[in-house]
Amino acid sequence: MTAPSRTVVLATHNPHKIEEFGAIVAASRPDVAVIGYDGPEPVEDGVTFRENALIKARAAAAHTGLPALADDSGICVDALGGAPGAFSAYWAGQRKDAVANRDLLLDQLRDIPDPRRRAQFVSTIALVIPVPDADAVEHIVEGIWPGRLAHAAAGEGGFGYDPVFIPDGQPEGAERTVAQWTAEEKNAVSHRARAFAALVPLLATL
C-alpha cells in the first residue's frame, strides 16, 4: 500500500463528505491524504455551485497554507427550474435539516408523474493551490449524475437527498435510490466521483 506523501485539506466540517471524498481520492490517488478543515466557516453567499466551492476552497487554503479542495453540490430538479441547486442544504430553512429538505422537495413534486420528475445530482469541485508570493492557482471541475426523484424516501445509507434520488441506468423493475446502494457502488459513479475523475490530472500539479 502506498503511504500518502501529499496532504490536501477538504473544506468542510461534514464528516460524511470527508469520508466519501477520502474514499474517492484513495481509489485513484493513494499518495494523497485528505484531511478535514478545522478553521472558521466562510459565508457562502454565492448563488451557484462554482461560486460557493471557490469561496470555501479559498478560505481553507488561506487558513491552512495547504492545497484545498471544496465541493459544493446539490440536487437540481427540472420541474423546479433547476432548484434547489446551490440552496439544496437550506431548502427547508437555515438549520440544514436533511429530512426536512427531502420532505419539502417531495411535497413540492407530489402531483408530478415520473416522466417529469427528472433531476440531477451536481458536484462542483474547486482546487486552490497556494503559491508563495504569488496568486493562488485555482481549478474548477464539475460532475453530473442524472436520474429522477422517487415518490417517497427509501434506504438507510448515504446522506442528504440520497434516499429520494434514483440514478439512471438501473435495470427496469429493480431501481433503487442511492440510499439503497452500498458506499462502494455510490463512490464509483456518483457526481463527486465524476467530478473527481476530471480533477485527477490537476492533482498531479501538487
Question: Which structural traits does this protein have?
Answer:
single chain; 206 residues; alpha/beta; globular; magnesium; EC 3.6.1.66
Secondary structure blueprint with pairings:
Layout: E1 6-10, H1 15-28, E2 32-36, H2 49-64, E3 68-77, H3 98-108, E4 118-131, E5 134-149, E6 165-167, H4 183-189, H5 191-203
Parallel strand pairs: 1-2, 1-3
Antiparallel strand pairs: 3-4, 4-5, 5-6
Helix pairs in contact: 1-5, 4-5
- SSE succession: EHEHEHEEEHH
Order of strands, widest sheet: 2-1-3-4-5-6
Mean pLDDT: 92
State the end-to-end CA separation.
20 Å
The assembly state of the depicted protein chains is single chain
Structural class: alpha/beta
Low-confidence stretches: none
Helicity level: 25-40%
Counting DSSP E segments of at least 2 residues, the number of strands comes to 6
Number of helices: 5
- Main sheet: strands, sense, barrel: 6 strands, mixed
* Rg estimate, integer Å: 17 Å
Q: How much of the sequence is in beta strands?
A: 25-35%
Overall outline: globular
Family: Belongs to the HAM1 NTPase family.
EC number: 3.6.1.66
Keywords: Hydrolase, Magnesium, Metal-binding, Nucleotide metabolism, Nucleotide-binding
Pfam families: Ham1p_like
Task: Report on this structure.
The chain is α/β, with parallel strands linked by helices. It has five helices and six strands. Strands 2-1-3-4-5-6 form a six-stranded mixed beta sheet. A hairpin with a 2-residue loop joins strand 4 and strand 5. It is globular and about 55 Å long. It starts with 5 loop residues before the first strand and ends with a helix.
